[in-house]
Amino acid sequence: xxxxxxxxxxxxxxxxxxxxxxxxxxxxxxxxxxxxxxxxxxxxxxxxxxxxxxxxxxxxxxxxxxxxxxxxxxxxxxxxxxxxxxxxxxxxxxxxxxxxxxxxxxxxxxxxxxxxxxxxxxxxxxxxxxxxxxxxxxxxxxxxxxxxxxxxxxxxxxxxxxxxxxxxxxxxxxxxxxxxxxxxxxxxxxxxxxxxxxxxxxxxxxxxxxxxxxxxxxxxxxxxxxxxxxxxxxxxxxxxxxxxxxxxxxxxxxxxxxxxxxxxxxxxxxxxxxxxxxxxxxxxxxxxxxxxxxxxxxxxxxxxxxxxxxxxxxxxxxxxxxxxxxxxxxxxxxxxxxxxxxxxxxxxxxxxxxxxxxxxxxxxxxxxxxxxxxxxxxxxxxxxxxxxxxxxxxxxxxxxxxxxxxxxxxxxxxxxxxxxxxxxxxxxxxxxxxxxxxxxxxxxxxxxxxxxxxxxxxxxxxxxxxxxxxxxxxxxxxxxxxxxxxxxxxxxxxxxxxxxxxxxxxxxxxxxxxxxxxxxxxxxxxxxxxxxxxxxxxxxxxxxxxxxxxxxxxxxxxxxxxxxxxxxxxxxxxxxxxxxxxxxxxxxxxxxxxxxxxxxxxxxxxxxxxxxxxxxxxxxxxxxxxxxxxxxxxxxxxxxxxxxxxxxxxxxxxxxxxxxxxxxxxxxxxxxxxxxxxxxxxxxxxxxxxxxxxxxxxxxxxxxxxxxxxxxxxxxxxxxxxxxxxxxxxxxxxxxxxxxxxxxxxxxxxxxxxxxxxxxxxxxxxxxxxxxxxxxxxxxxxxxxxxxxxxxxxxxxxxxxxxxxxxxxxxxxxxxxxxxxxxxxxxxxxxxxxxxxxxxxxxxxxxxxxxxxxx
Amino acid sequence: xxxxxxxxxxxxxxxxxxxxxxxxxxxxxxxxxxxxxxxxxxxxxxxxxxxxxxxxxxxxxxxxxxxxxxxxxxxxxxxxxxxxxxxxxxxxxxxxxxxxxxxxxxxxxxxxxxxxxxxxxxxxxxxxxxxxxxxxxxxxxxxxxxxxxxxxxxxxxxxxxxx
Lengths: 855, 163
Known about the structure:
The structure holds two protein chains of two kinds.
Chain A: E1 18-23, E2 32-39, E3 72-76, E4 82-89, E5 126-129, E6 132-135, H1 138-156, E7 161-165, H2 174-189, E8 194-196, H3 207-210, H4 221-226, E9 229-233, H5 237-240, H6 242-254, H7 258-264, E10 275-279, H8 285-294, E11 298-301, H9 308-321, H10 327-333, H11 336-346, H12 353-364, H13 368-379, E12 390-394, H14 396-399, H15 404-417, E13 427-430, H16 458-463, E14 469-473, H17 477-480, H18 484-503, H19 511-524, E15 529-534, E16 546-549, E17 558-561, E18 567-571, H20 584-602, H21 605-610, H22 619-627, H23 653-659, E19 664-665, E20 669-670, E21 677-678, H24 708-711, E22 721-726, H25 742-747, E23 752-755, H26 757-762, E24 770-774, E25 779-786, E26 794-798, E27 800-801, E28 804-805, E29 826-832
Chain B: H1 3-11, E1 20-24, E2 30-34, E3 39-43, E4 53-56, E5 63-68, E6 83-87, E7 97-100, E8 103-106, E9 112-114, E10 120-123, E11 132-137, E12 143-150
Antiparallel strand pairs in B: 1-2, 3-12, 4-5, 5-6, 7-8, 8-9, 9-10, 11-12
């Protein structure tokens, strides 16, 4: 009867089971987990077990201990023996308190097993030959890659090497792998054509805040429970950073944190149930769940696509007019010289308020009444004159909006204007997607167009015929890059050109002959040698020449921080990587050390030196090596702003193992008095992260309409719908794990489209149909859900899915100030698909995921 | 004995109380092993669409719901295959689930399960689908019997392992 194999019993770990602490491999929340491993044939009992929980009785609700079907697996270690694996949400973690999401609850299912869901993990280095990929040794793989990289650099320059590599924690193995990638690509190869996993360039997505002197991770999870108002701006917290919403925002909205507020607030200060402002064109589940809890304490603003910075400036102008700011704070903590520019360009104080707000209404589609209410909820002092405490979190709805720099800057400035940073219950920054763990040598492009930028667009470089060798690490740009159809077609052609050349006369098996022929092809064709380093075969890897098998989460020791507390913890190794797979840092070091040896053999000391410092033996060595990049961290509490947000200098793996789920919050400073390492709970109480410690204001651009890449569709009747994208609660990124887990693939079998009932009627569409979504960039076939999440005239698509990407509908526009794409907006046509419906629709739920109210 | 063969075994008996048969436990001692009981939980003639009946199964500490939905359901019984039953303990953290128009809704964290689609979590936090009760309808009388559970009931290491 069941659609897949179910369990009705679970094994229990004996008291002597191996125990490890880790953190979820998925979202920015970074829930703590405890891991138990024990021989398959051994068992604890209901009353005596390593969980130290009495399992003989029916558990009580919300006990903080959960052990479900999806939290168990049977693994085989390299010794050939089978072991039970249980990965359990940690009750003692202050991040999740035993709670977990639909993503994290399946951590155990992602463990490699030779016969289970993950059996097709990459196990050997693979080289493309005439008939497909063949396994080769690491020695040969490293020789080929190192020699090609060096030879290409020598002949065509460092910029002939392009890379696209993850820069984060959690699923990407944090500080260790990032230091490895930084040493090879930034110190060694020194190419300008670097790009980060999810975008075409090497940049911060929030230079609009950082260049003001404010790093985007400046708050603590506690602030979400202590805020008077939480603002979620283009940030779908319930579906994207789920446990942060359910454990920290939701209790605030329910009034469950009033006692905590009373303890933390000033004497006599009102402490009430929290309010929430959700700024999102879509009525997603974050909105409907919040409304179901308390409709009167939820404000939902639905701006037109691309207009949020105009809205942020309008809210700031209303706060200014009402004098909801603290002049003393502005003068002491912010740069009053640049403030004039902000007043002139962003607040437009020279224009009458009515005219300014009338324009803002027209551009954003948000009414003045809504703007006034939102501004009051953010900034109007509470009874008794106490400053309101507002925590504002934005994410991809802002970052991947039109005009990335101005969007981020406008929100950062609204919050500093109203002193909603550096106080209990405040903060302004990212909700985050993944966790973080960035430590690398300095990037070639330090900032936006105002600070030495913008960085190079690597997609344009590659699609335009640039580069010889393109190294892709743990990302699948065929799905994830903007204008992905064009990107895929271009790369495919260049890969085919190279293969055609190699194929002519046969692809040599001997590494030296192979290398010689590739170098010939570099000279005679525009071919591209693509290297993909990943844990599974990806869409992109199908066109690679060389594939390198990497270790995944739990298969190497790593360290990362979460986004909502910058909590640094250890993610211990409890699994053996499949086959010959190696941690990314080790792969990068093998190649780096080989290039060094090649230069040494030539007597080229200068170049050999560039590739030095990669001779790490253990994960702990890499972690320690990276820490020196942070410089001296001797600082008092009041000097914390000068420390890098992720500074962990002095912290060791050993120390983190001892701290377990407690961790330590970055930036970690060495106290000048005690000499002890101290974490930082919340940032920017005393100063900002600029040279003089003052917040630097910026005058945003005026509204100038849409960029040409999207404006071409306006007034074109073939493309009547505005189109935006987002993620699903169920799956992580490209579904690289989830498409192998039956619960996930059955529930999310296809890319899907949400459309408003009014539009659906006109197109004869109903839930469970399929529709073609198309424009001049690309098209996608999608399962249809008709619901009220979108407004009439706006459709929403799942950004990408293992079976199809909607990023091929997205234009190649990037913000000229930062090279960040506008992934979240374009225009499309939609028509009903009249072919045979996919069989998966027979078993998928067709209920609307934003309808949470019991009727 | 597998769950399936255990159910077949039970289907051939008229037992409505808990049945026991003997097996060897891990220490090699003979010990009684519980099997899923067959228990009458309603009659198909009395069910109305979207009007759920509650019952406990396989024991008193496991609340469940029996419901007729308005479409053919995975694991459904009856002529329209539209009668299903589920555990009403949320598989996320054990909160009570409320039946509402084809779905089970948890008010603790808003996990929602589609009862026509095998109890799949179509929204929310529960990584495990809710446990579905195996049903049999006696053609002659219309009586509905619960005869097994597919999937783990929340808060247990085994559906039949509660002391």
